[in-house]
Design a protein that fits this description.
- The complex is a heterodimer.
- Chain A is of the alpha/beta class.
- Chain A has 2 domains: 142 residues, Aspartate/ornithine carbamoyltransferase (Rossmann fold), CATH 3.40.50.1370; 147 residues, Aspartate/ornithine carbamoyltransferase (Rossmann fold, 3-Layer(aba) Sandwich).
- Helix content of chain A is 37%, strand content 15%.
- In chain A, helix 1 crosses helix 5.
- The radius of gyration of chain A is 19 Å and the shape is globular.
- The two termini of chain B are 23 Å apart.
- Chain B has one domain: Rossmann fold (3-Layer(aba) Sandwich), CATH 3.40.50.2020.
- Chain B is globular.
- By secondary structure, chain B is an alpha/beta fold.
- In chain B, the strands form 2 sheets. Chain B has a 5-stranded parallel β-sheet, with helices on both faces. A 3-stranded antiparallel β-sheet of chain B has the order 1-8-7.
- Chain B is 24% helix and 23% strand.
- In chain B, helix 1 crosses helix 2.
- Chain B has 4 helices and 8 strands, in the order E-H-E-H-E-E-H-E-E-E-H-E.
- In chain B, strand 4, helix 3 and strand 5 form a beta-alpha-beta unit.
- Classes of the chains: A alpha/beta, B alpha/beta.
- At the A-B interface, helix 1 and helix 11 of A face helix 3 of B.
- Chain B: GO terms for molecular function: uracil phosphoribosyltransferase activity.
- Chain B: Belongs to the purine/pyrimidine phosphoribosyltransferase family. PyrR subfamily.
- Chain B: Its EC number is 2.4.2.9.
- Chain B: This is Bifunctional protein PyrR.
Amino acid sequence: MRHLLSTGDLSRDEATLVLDTAAELAQVSGRSVKKLPTLRGRTVVNLFYEDSTRTRTSFELAAKRLSADVINFSAKGSSVSKGESLKDTALTLQAMGADGVVVRHPASGAAHRLAGWVDGAVLNAGDGTHEHPTQALLDAYTMRARTGRVEGLRVAVVGDVLHSRVARSNVLLLHTLGAEVTLVAPPTLMPVSVHTWPCAVSYDLDAVLPKTDVVMLLRVQAERMQNAFFPTAREYSRRYGLDRDRLARLPDHAIVMHPGPMVRGMEISAEVADSARSTISEQVANGVSVRMAALYLLLGGS
Amino acid sequence: MCARKRAESDAEASPAADPTAPGAQTARTVLDGPEIQRALTRIAHEVLERTKGAHDVTLLGIPSRGVPLARRLAERVEQVEGRAVPWGSLDITMYRDDLRLAPARALGRTEIPPQGVDGRVVVLVDDVLFSGRTVRAALDALNDIGRPRAVQLAILVDRGHRELPIRADYVGKNLPTSLRESVDVRLAELDGRDAVLLGPARPRPGEEDDR
């Protein structure tokens, strides 16, 4: 494993290694000295062409807990606003000796292109509507931590699948790990090629919920929508939002996940988001451990 | 004193468990199961003696083979004194000085007993003492977890060739070796039988397990 670009590149053993490593590294967060010397002297660049709070701070914290030097680079206030291309920016970072590049970009495939230009490891922190592998890994980690397993879990991914990089990464990873994924969305928000994905598809949330161990809700990404995909937000929320009544249809052991940022009242009601079955803040905490594991496995060895 | 390996050609291990390891036919048994048990029993008594009853002792094994050894020592101390001694494991992978010589390694488990390590006498337990680099890493790892009153080192086999100023407080067996030899410790918990084997050196690509 040289880069982390897609969860589809991970074998079952590799994915399990990341999760096991994260489980060990999670202990560091509970100690008084929250630091390991492992990546001392290595430089990690956070290259963010899109807004992000969770992912960028999570990667930054993870790299710092491993003693790496972190450079934060966001497109706003950099030479990108003067017209510099991704390739030239990458070559600049290369010349400065970056050992790892964490990249988020609005264009699908940007991380893959970048991997061909720089010597260091590239970690995809979200490329357009394509993939977000560390999010899928932390979701799988959270499922394993809460339910004790991933294999055989019935996972429903509900919402704006069309624009979601989280959905694709999760489908590929959860399939590799042996879970059964069902995508639930209005037909207009389902990708055209979804029949080639290793998962089931449904348009009826109420029918899926009773046969589900994990519900993962996705935000409707209005910023990526040029067309009207559903009549009104209220209608979307009525049919695909998770509220108290729908929560009651779930089996008692089922958990509710959301990759964030969430829009309360739209895909998830405030009551559900704050309930004991919601893992939303756990996901954020687990994100640091999983990203530490990914950074260690990509940058820690020879 | 002069800890020569005894010419025990008859002690060719217990015939029950098959080694199944590469080069097993050329490896020679230098400690068999009962000898390992006796060495551990002696070390347990030495720990009790040196620490005056092991009142605030915590045993921490270094994965992988130090952990079952720490557990066995804890059992023996409890048998003798009738009081439980906290034991756990301390993984040192993230503190190794040779991480960049090999692909990233899988981590072992770290389990610190609930008493913690602050103010306690921590006895680190490992199977083989070689270069001393593992123990150096363990001291660094321990430093990030807390501040023990004292740290001691218990080792099943000391094979010499130290590269750092480190020595063991409790030694199961001193085993003078050549750098062209390898020492393999087998433990029933992990390998199905107890034995210490001396064989020809494995190739050391990035020193797969230098102790």
